[in-house]
Amino acid sequence: MGKRILGSMLLLLLGMVSFTFLPGLKVEAADRVHTVSSQETVESIAATYDISAEQLMKTNGLPDDKLYVGQQLIIKTVYTPSIYQWSERGKQIGNYAKTFTGFKKTAGEETPINGFDSSGLIYWVLSRQKVPIDRLSVEGYYKQGMVTDTPKTGDIIFFLEKESSKIVTAGIYLGGNQFVNSGYGAETVQVRSITEKYFAQFQVAYKTYTPKGEHVVQNNETLKSISEKYGVSVGTIKKRNALPTDSLMQGQYLQIYSNPLYPFYANQEASYDKALDVIKYAYTLRGFTYALGEYDPIIGMDCSGFIYWVMKEQGISVKRGSAADYYSLLPKLKNPKAGDLVFFRDTDSSKEITHAGIYLGDGLFIHTTKNTGVHISDLTSSYFAQKFESFGQINMD
């Protein structure tokens, strides 16, 4: 297929045009907590608080509509649908773990009905959040996880004896020195703190668990070392992630196996010949931070900078401009294809085109926001549905 027409963008102004960006999260009211009682359902609880069942499930990281008496559900009236990006996925893991606060501690068990030991709680929560792990001991999980120096919500925290390095217990990290644990000093699942006297005596280590087939690039890792770890060739990894060079950036998310973690684009009609490569490469940048007026992932990117960087790295000639610049140059359409752009108006106080993203198909798009960084969002969410302006058509010569 021939070159695509973003060529009109060659006429864009040469200088960078900055713009004000929408906040990644709207201001939320103080959380309310609802304790599940007998006979209650997701639908009945959602109706009680005048929210959707989907919103209730996503706020609490519920993998399905099955509830357990005693679960403590957070009730939010504002929902940001960034469920595909790791930080949001980690929050779901942490929130789901917290719903079992007060459930009994039982050695060797891993279900809400029978109770949890510390490794059983990890197994139940992660497996129910579609992180494919086996039922292991805390020692097994320590060996299996990927070391991280920047722990985030949803990671696993381990406590080791300082001299022997023996694993004593583990929990699901919540951030702010807190974690959910079914172990020492309590007969039930509790939210604990690293600063407690008992836990302060141990060495702390953190491990990240990602869905099978997704690898988060760590400092000093290379394509060769990752290839050897998984037994997948360098060329295959590059192709599956549309990597333009052998260089990697710490924090990139790489799809390792043939079935992509986000397969919804696979059956979508692409708007130009490199559209799917653009999408694959954009996926690797999930979680990279926002920076106004910038376009380098290492520094941060605003929304138009993100589009510019991804296109440039895929060999597509496009000048650096603002969301409004891109909007002014592209034909508008009602039925987008994967790789087209999506535009939003009035995400600040300017009443103009202020935000843009890359359309993925199935109502989803990838973009970057101030508080969340690069992530995937849903056009049907109340916020983006209200701010949506149009799609911008990417054609071919």
Summarize this structure as a short list of keywords or feature phrases:
397 residues; alpha+beta; 6-stranded antiparallel sheet; 20 strands; 25% helix; disordered N terminus
In short, what is this structure?
The radius of gyration is 23 Å and the shape is globular. 25% of the residues lie in helices and 21% in strands. With 397 residues, the protein is an alpha+beta fold.
General description of the model:
- The structure is a single chain.
- The protein has helices at 42-48, 53-59, 86-98, 118-128, 138-144, 197-200, 223-230, 234-241, 275-283, 303-313, 323-329, 382-387, and strands at residues 32-35, 72-75, 110-111, 115-116, 146-147, 156-160, 167-175, 178-181, 190-193, 203-208, 214-216, 253-255, 295-296, 300-301, 332-333, 341-345, 353-361, 364-369, 373-378, 388-392.
- Residues 1-30 and 78-85 have low confidence and may be disordered.
- It starts with 31 loop residues before the first strand and ends in a 5-residue tail after the last strand.
- The longest helix has 13 residues, at 86-98.
- It is built from 12 helices and 20 strands.
- The strands form 6 sheets. A 6-stranded antiparallel sheet has the order 5-10-6-7-8-9.
- It is 25% helix and 21% strand.
